[in-house]
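User: My advisor, Dr. K., asked me to get a structural model of this assembly before our group meeting. I'm new to this, so sorry if the format is off. These are the inputs:
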Amino acid sequence: ILNVEQSPQSLHVQEGDSTNFTCSFPSSNFYALHWYRWETAKSPEALFVMTLNGDEKKKGRISATLNTKEGYSYLYIKGSQPEDSATYLCAFNRGSTLGRLYFGRGTQLTVWP
Amino acid sequence: NAGVMQNPRHLVRRRGQEARLRCSPMKGHSHVYWYRQLPEEGLKFMVYLQKENIIDESGMPKERFSAEFPKEGPSILRIQQVVRGDSAAYFCASSPRETQETQYFGPGTRLLVL
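Assistant: The format is fine. Below is the predicted structure of the whole assembly, which you can bring to the meeting.
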């Protein structure tokens, strides 16, 4: 069984706060790490794909970092807004099973105005 | 460019009936993936297909479940003789190629088995 762990499970912040979540994955046979944003009743929306140790990606107020040697990735949201409220999923690709994504359970973010 | 389309969005079946879920990938995408989300669980991989080929079906139950992606038309996930435990949200994703390419998800089909 291949575990992808995300923490915290849920998070409530005030508008304007910055926040971050963690995704832990097996460091062996790593191929790629994906982050998705998932709003209720919508499709999961792709945010980032990262493949190299030390990768950093940024999209507006959201950024992500990757450490493949120790098996973790952080997602940061700067100055959270109510529209950032969603579940943030990370998913892991192994080199031996390309195409198959192993998902974490997600971090549910609620941003209060 | 239309996104990944899935239909129906909601499907109700009685135990023992068949369920057919359809997925039309994004234009230009030849790789399709099916995932299932059981109640209170995360997304779990079921099957990975290319046109006319099953690449990896290791996540799909061996009995009653089958998937295809024909040369023409949508990908179909078929569940025969459904049971209550099949009630879940079934998501399809597509990508232009495999490896580290982003998988783009559809809105899902919510299957309820009575």
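One thing worth pointing out at the meeting: The CA atoms of residues 37 and 43 of chain B lie 5 Å apart.

User: Perfect, thanks a lot.
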